[in-house]
Amino acid sequence: MANPLSYKTIDWVGGLDGAVEMIDQTLLPEDVKILTCRDVGTLWEAIRSLRVRGAPAIGVAAAMGVVLGTRDAADQAELFENLTRVCEYLASSRPTAVNLFWALERMRSRAESLRNLPLEELKQALLTEAQAVRAEDAAICRAIGQAGQHLIQDGATVLTHCNAGGLATAEYGTALAIMYAARENGRRFQVYADETRPLLQGARLTAWELFRAGIDVTVICDNVAGSLMKAGRIGLVVTGADRIAANGDAANKIGTYSLAVLAQAHGVPFYVAAPRSTFDLSLENGEAIPIEVRPAEEVSQVFGRVVVPEGVGCYNPAFDVTPARLIRGIVTEQGIIEPVHRDRIREVFAG
Ligand code: MRU
């Protein structure tokens, strides 16, 4: 299956003295501009401002950020000092997507395991590792698509929230990978994309990539979903996730929980699609998942225009947690976890 995006969401270009290139997602759909990050500060800002976003893509960015932050070290001791510092710094960019911390830990332990290598070889090995994180994510997303494609039958209507597509991963996406794979298998279906206030990832990003891929997509305001389900016009809901606890509770873009409640009320199956790197088995349940609260201005201003009276507060949590009992199944690169239960999750990680 060819990359439906035809752009690389994020990539490392050149050798060790190269740079991270990414589509600046804050400019979509109007402009497709590539942002080049040659230093960790630029990369941190890109994650914080959602120029690169979506849990797996943030993980790829973090891995590449470690290379940016260690490649100039003059000796081994400096490299390991810089490694600690850059990992702490990048960990402060966004709190919810566990892929960020997963990728930093992977880079840190790779460096530890190669501690005895000559300096230049060690630096090169870290670049190779970051590139592997990206390549593996693309392959994993393809596997998620294959594992879940049968959920979308000919003539289906599917609702998704936020953007869990190629833009949110190295390639293909998670929830959208299922759509791309279903289409590859000849199914025709319709997708409703929640616009996803306040930053409009559904309207700006999901609609952009599905439309470019030739998939029938219609954008709806977030508050339309319930009436569409009541009218029997949604057959399946599938979203991504930013962190999944050991019992299957899943954090995803704010509004996902409401969709899951609506789906249950209307008998619509609700699926989550995510790679193993999105599971955080150190958390018993979703209560402990840290939820990012973003600036009030993202709510009080729309396209630079103030829409909330001055002096009125806005509360802007970026994620919510959907309890496992509302999730029919979690589509992973190893197949579908269904029913969603602690023991089934443990089995996937034991294998
Ligand atoms: O704030 P964002 O745009 O990074 O939020 C992204 C999401 O909520 C996605 O659904 C999630 O990261 C899964 S991406 C495959």
What does this structure look like?
The structure is a single chain. The protein is of the alpha/beta class and 351 residues long. The protein folds into two domains: 10-142, Four Helix Bundle (Hemerythrin (Met), subunit A), CATH 1.20.120.420; 149-350, Translation initiation factor eif-2b, domain 2 (Rossmann fold). It contains eleven helices and 16 strands. It has helices at residues 40-48, 55-70, 76-91, 98-113, 119-148, 175-184, 201-212, 225-230, 256-265, 297-300, 342-350, and strands spanning 10-13, 19-23, 34-37, 157-160, 190-194, 216-220, 236-239, 243-245, 250-253, 270-273, 279-280, 301-302, 305-306, 319-322, 329-332, 335-337. The chain has a seven-stranded mixed sheet, with helices on both faces. Strand 1 (10-13) and strand 2 (19-23) form a beta hairpin. The longest helix has 30 residues, at 119-148. It is globular and about 65 Å long. The mean pLDDT is 97. 5-S-methyl-1-O-phosphono-5-thio-D-ribulose (MRU) is lined by residues 50, 53-56, 97, 162, 164, 168-169, 173-174, 201, 239-242, 252-253, 318.
